[in-house]
Design a protein that fits this description.
2 domains, about 230 residues, Rossmann fold, UDP N-Acetylglucosamine Acyltransferase, domain 1, binds coenzyme A, alpha/beta, six-stranded mixed beta sheet
Length: about 230
């Protein structure tokens, strides 16, 4: 399938950012810097298509049209901060056999023995220090860091300025709000944040967080009507 957007044919190598929200629009300049001579576009599920056919000068098309393009050299990076939605879209992209690309800012710093899976977004001024393993579709927003000996699962979101100290395990689909600090764990007893949990903006997490739990404050405790009093 040949696609014209807007008023011209797409180049053969196509990098697509899935999403058009604030974060997706922040990530596009990083992609353009990384791939200046390639076709960098936005895609969304067809039910979210807008009347415009471009955003900030980059073409916008539906995911459904994107998968019909015959180019073999196309890939997707999902820039949706919501961890559950990102996980769902990621499954769809994998089912359609489309490669998920990493977008990594030139101003980020990666030190020794850091392994990064696919579809990861590392924003400006992020630091990943040493001996770290990062799962698929991790988002590290501006000014966040991951320190030594951490294990990050799939579809984890770090909002801006999240500080994840050493010997921490973050399980799949965890969302960590702006400015949260995760205290360091111990080598033989890492601090664990359970899958599907939410760490509120500005929290200081000093101990393990159970799965599917929202915590807030300093020291972080479970967010409930009574704990807010
Ligand atoms: C914790 C969070 C997920 C809760 O969201 P929510 O379910 O929509 O809840 P609300 O914002 O309505 O807040 C519920 C109560 O918790 C309090 N609260 C919310 N976030 C809080 C926080 N980080 N610290 C302390 N209290 C907080 C609110 O003041 C409110 O209290 P009230 O009922 O006495 O008025 C959300 O507040 C949060 O921290 N999100 C992360 C934001 C972020 O970092 N975004 C990144 C953008 S890139």
């Amino acid at each position: 399938m040949e696609i014209k957007v807007p008023g011209r044919l797409l180049m053969s190598k196509i990098n697509a950012i899935y999403g058009t929200g604030g974060f997706a629009r922040e990530v596009m300049p990083i992609l353009k810097e990384q791939c200046p001579n390639e076709e960098n576009i936005f895609i969304v599920h067809k039910k979210y298509m807008q009347t415009e056919n471009s955003i900030n000068g980059c073409p916008l098309m539906s995911y459904e049209d994107f998968i019909k393009i015959s180019s073999r050299d196309k890939n997707v990076t999902i820039a949706i901060s919501d961890t559950a939605i990102r996980a769902k879209v990621s499954d769809q992209v994998d089912n359609d056999h489309i490669k998920q690309k990493n977008i990594i800012s030139k101003t980020s710093i990666t030190m020794d023995n850091v392994s990064i899976s696919d579809g990861v977004i590392i924003c400006p001024f992020v630091t990943l220090t040493s001996n770290i393993k990062i799962g698929k579709n991790f988002h590290a927003n501006i000014y966040s860091y991951v320190a030594h000996d951490c294990l990050i699962g799939e579809n984890v979101t770090f909002a801006p300025s999240v500080k994840c100290n050493g010997n921490v395990i973050i399980e799949d689909n965890v969302f960590i709000g702006t400015g949260a600090i995760i205290k360091q764990g111990k080598k033989d007893n890492p601090l664990v944040i359970g899958a599907n949990s939410i760490i509120s903006a500005g929290s200081f997490v000093t101990k393990n967080v159970s799965k599917s739990t929202t915590v807030f404050g300093n020291p972080a405790k479970i967010l409930s009507k009574s704990s807010l009093k």
